[in-house]
Amino acid sequence: MAKITGYLSQGRRVAIRHVCRQDYDELTALARDSAEMLRRWLGARDNTVEAFESYLERFEQPTHVGFVICLRDTGAIVGGVNINNVLRGALQSGTLGYTSYASTTGRGYMTEGLGLVIRFAFGVLELHRLEANIQPDNTSSLNLVERLGFRREGYSVAFQYINGEWRDHERWAITAETARTAARPVNLPHRPAGEESESTRRR
Length: 203
Ligand SMILES: CC(C)(COP(=O)(O)OP(=O)(O)OC[C@H]1O[C@@H](n2cnc3c(N)ncnc32)[C@H](O)[C@@H]1OP(=O)(O)O)[C@@H](O)C(=O)NCCC(=O)NCCS
Known about the structure:
By secondary structure, the protein is of the alpha+beta class. The protein is built from seven helices and eight strands; from the N terminus they run ββαααβββαβαββαα. The protein is about 30% helix and about 30% strand. Strand 1 and strand 2 (about 15-20) form a beta hairpin. It is globular. The model is unreliable at about 185-203 (pLDDT under 50).
């Protein structure tokens, strides 16, 4: 796999860069292998070149920014994050979308990578607020944002149409101020296989 450089920010194990046309084959293979996991929470996805092209076109607008999370040592993609619906002026806000993949989930890569995106958003992009809308039974996603310092702000009934139904979502948010005081995600300790995390014990 050719390593694409141009990282915007690097952590201990992962780095972030903008998604690009050359990512199509790798992202499509990851999405195909993860079809069941992604369909459950995001709905069915179209993996054609045309769909990827229109996905990339979105990021030509200043209202959308697309990132991939890569392993620092190989460059392999382990996750994706979008900042959607960026509003400037007095709001300076954006809405997050993110995914890991069946072969990359549960290793802390998203925690580290999304943490880098958040710092980039509040630093280089000069945003002030990031929101994430999460289905109440999407435990992995709720754990992820809570670990990164987001706060639960509300509950939106019938928020998004996914898999044939309008689904309720919890609304979580982090601001530039709260991010500064949130726990640093980049140096999460290694947890031996089989040992439960704090959030697993809480469930
Ligand atoms: C939501 C989603 C992105 C979360 O990703 P994730 O893989 O759980 O996130 P991480 O890579 O940071 O892994 C975190 C988990 O790995 C564990 N972990 C294992 N080894 C670890 C290590 N070395 N370092 C840190 N964490 C480690 C963490 O304890 C944590 O487990 P927990 O959730 O039980 O507490 C993922 O489940 C996903 O893509 N789902 C489908 C799409 C989706 O739902 N998107 C969001 C819509 S709102």
